[in-house]
Specification:
The protein is of the alpha/beta class and 318 residues long. The chain has helices at 7-11, 34-47, 73-87, 105-108, 150-162, 182-190, 204-219, 250-257, 270-277, 281-284, 289-317; strands at 61-65, 93-97, 126-128, 131-135, 171-175, 195-200, 224-229, 234-235, 242-243, 261-264. It contains 11 helices and 10 strands. Strand 8 (234-235) and strand 9 (242-243) form a beta hairpin. The protein is globular.
Length: 318
């Protein structure tokens, strides 16, 4: 079944109605006693947060996030997912592009076409480089912009997570949008997130916003695996000197946030070609420094998941 033909049914429409009998400039006075306010507050608090429900047949979920845009978050998510598949071919890896407004995974993973629905009315993810992929960019044709309010975005995110035939998966990498908004809150409150990787660049502006993202995950009780630093420096091709063209404050900022820099990537002009061609560096440049570092990053994520599983198993026995 063609997925685009059912989009109106899948996502629905938000309709706003106005009471035209009341003038726009009218003042409405609400009279509530203190006891009414306290009672309402108690009812709201009693509802609690939504129950976290795992995705069927998905063992682990890892978020890749950045407070600021343009720091190489999607590049990190794409190459991490591919590297995990390369070093552990028997593992099933998925990649979810949760950036509804600015999806980039289809370009970087060289995937296109309309996803189909299976017999269970679930969207079948597209497969490339051995990684199962899903993105809003696959559901919106051409260069059409997604112009939605928050509720529509949350409905779309619900479909991209629970209405996709992800399983079986050993790990789902989620590429999240910049900022600290509804998407992160919805994912953290509705899914059992195993950990998050925070991506930044050395500029003060990026690091400042990164701190906000770290604080967000702390409040949401999402453990942070570590920090990935992109564009850390540029290497002179003539003398090999490292030039910290964007500053050198990442290490100090990471220490202040209590985080470890689990991988650091220098500026490499070849990465742009990898992005534009839709062939991740892990495949396009397998012998490069970047590819080796992505493999190391993948190993660290696998180790983190393994250690977390062992810790939880021991806690259950006790």
């Amino acid at each position: 079944m063609n997925i685009r033909k059912i989009l109106p049914r899948v996502y629905g429409h938000l309709v706003s109605s106005l009471n035209t009998s009341t003038p726009c400039c009218a003042t409405v006075r609400l009279q509530h006693g203190k006891s009414d306010v306290n009672e309402h507050r108690a009812k709201v608090m009693a509802r609690g947060l939504p129950e976290k429900k795992p995705l069927p047949k998905v063992k682990s979920i890892i978020l890749v996030a950045s407070g600021k845009g343009g720091v190489g978050k999607t590049t990190t998510a794409v190459n991490l997912a591919c590297a995990m598949k390369v070093i552990e071919p028997d593992k099933e890896i998925g990649l979810l592009d949760a950036d509804v407004f600015g999806p980039s995974v289809p370009l970087m993973m060289n995937i296109s076409g309309e996803p189909m629905l299976n017999d269970d009315n679930l969207i079948e993810p597209l497969l490339n480089y051995g990684v199962k992929c899903m993105s809003m960019g696959l559901l919106v044709s051409g260069e059409n912009a997604v112009v939605w309010r928050g509720l529509m975005v949350m409905q779309a995110l619900e479909r991209l997570t629970r209405q996709v035939a992800w399983g079986p998966l050993d790990c789902l990498i989620v590429d999240t949008p910049p900022g600290t908004g509804d998407t992160h809150l919805s994912l953290a409150q509705n899914l059992p997130i195993d950990g998050a990787i925070v991506v930044t660049t050395p500029q003060s502006a990026a690091l400042q916003v990164t701190k906000r993202g770290v604080n967000m995950f702390d409040k949401l009780k999402v453990p942070i695996i570590g920090m990935v630093e992109n564009m850390s420096h540029a290497i002179c091709h003539k003398c090999g000197t490292k030039n910290f063209v964007f500053g050198n404050e990442t290490k100090t900022a990471a220490e202040q946030m209590g985080l470890q820099i689990i991988e650091s990537f220098e500026v490499d002009s070849n990465m742009s070609e990898c992005i534009n061609s839709g062939k991740p560096a892990i495949y396009a440049l397998p012998d490069s420094t970047h590819a080796e570092k992505y493999r190391q990053l993948a190993n660290k994520v696998f180790k983190y998941i393994s250690d977390k599983d062992k810790s939880e198993a021991e806690a259950t026995k006790q």
